[in-house]
Amino acid sequence: MQDTVTSNRIAADWIAADWGTSNLRLWAIGPGGEILAERSAPEGMGTLAPDQFEPALLRLAEDLLAPDRVTPVLICGMAGAKQGWIEAPYARVPCPPASGAPVTAPTADPRISVRILPGLSQSGPADVMRGEETQIAGFLADEPEFDGTLCLPGTHTKWVRIAGGEVRGFRTAMTGELFALIGRQSVLRHSLSPDGETDETAFAEALRHGFAEPAALSLDLFSIRPASLLDGLAPAAASGRLSGLLIGLELAGARDFWQGRDVVVVGTPGLTARYIAALEQLGGRARAAANPELARSGLVAAYRVLQG
């Protein structure tokens, strides 16, 4: 557990929480919007049954609660999934991000009132997001006039078209999950770098090839193994080739989102740098989001709207 404040007692005006599949992060917010404390724990949606969410929240936040009043808690992310605390139905795009009506979660402790923000969905083609919409809201709080694309790389990378303060459409790429599955469970696992080291030259070459020849992906993937057996392809180069092929394939499929558009990448520093470099290598233009705490900013913006 992480706490940025060391005073004996912190009474939050309200609590913001980003509840993902693997982790829970929360912030205690003061009456003037100041951050009183920040905490995290590895108690994500994937490890909890519905009746375990409230105890997990209290383990992390109980000493932040005032004993004589109800503390509002606003949550985004996977706590609102079908397998989460309580399902928060998706809001349909086009719509402003984090603008749907939150769902009240059942609680036993009288000191808290918990609401969960809905994710976003679209029907053509079918797609969903949970949690990313709050990051988008945080970004638009900083750049309300933005007209372009947000790229949120990760296990499931989101490409999101933004205009007029709304999410107009989005697509999800399973690139990160594919890389992990292939690296752990396929025959290529014997060729890849065990410590995640990546040869950048191999990555750049594979990126260009994967973008230009996406139909050859399954053939090009297998060639990584014989190249290591017959030609001595180094593990770092094999990892770079795998990553480059998969991201090249993704960028080929998502070209309508980034070609000729302003693109902002929102993610961890390593992934952000990788996607910006890949986009620029293929002729796009991209920049990193200036605010590293977009989920928190989005929760604050949503709370203000809910408070009128």
As laid out across the biggest beta sheet, the strand order is: 3-2-1-4-7-6
Name the poorly predicted regions: 1-7
Structural class: alpha/beta
Radius of gyration, rounded?
A: 21 Å
Count of DSSP H/I helices: 9
**Beta-strand percentage range:** 15-25%
CATH class of the largest domain: Alpha Beta
Principal-axis shape: globular
Tell me the CATH superfamily of the largest domain: 2-keto-3-deoxy-galactonokinase, substrate binding domain
- CATH topology description of the largest domain: Nucleotidyltransferase, domain 5
| CATH architecture label of the largest domain | 2-Layer Sandwich
Give a count of the beta strands, DSSP E runs of length 2 or more: 14
Write down the domain tally. Answer: 2
Write the element-wise H/E pattern from the N-terminal end onward.
Answer: EEEHEEEEEEHEEEHHHHHEHEH
Q: What does this entry show, briefly?
A:
The protein has about 300 residues and is an alpha/beta fold. About 35% of the residues lie in helices and about 20% in strands.
What tags apply to this protein structure?
308 residues, Nucleotidyltransferase, domain 5, six-stranded mixed β-sheet, five-stranded mixed β-sheet, 9 helices, 14 strands, disordered N terminus
Q: How would you explain this protein's 3D organization?
A:
- This protein has 308 residues and is of the alpha/beta class.
- The chain folds into two domains: 14-130, 2-keto-3-deoxy-galactonokinase, substrate binding domain (Nucleotidyltransferase, domain 5, 2-Layer Sandwich), CATH 3.30.420; 173-288, 2-keto-3-deoxy-galactonokinase, C-terminal domain (Nucleotidyltransferase, domain 5), CATH 3.30.420.310.
- Helices cover 35% and strands 22% of the residues.
- The protein contains nine helices and 14 strands.
- It has helices at 53-61, 132-142, 175-185, 200-212, 217-230, 235-253, 255-258, 269-281, 294-306; strands at 14-19, 24-29, 35-41, 71-77, 91-92, 103-104, 112-116, 120-123, 126-129, 148-152, 157-163, 166-173, 263-265, 286-288.
- Helix 2 (132-142) crosses helix 9 (294-306).
- The relative contact order is 0.13.
- The model is unreliable at 1-7 (pLDDT under 50).
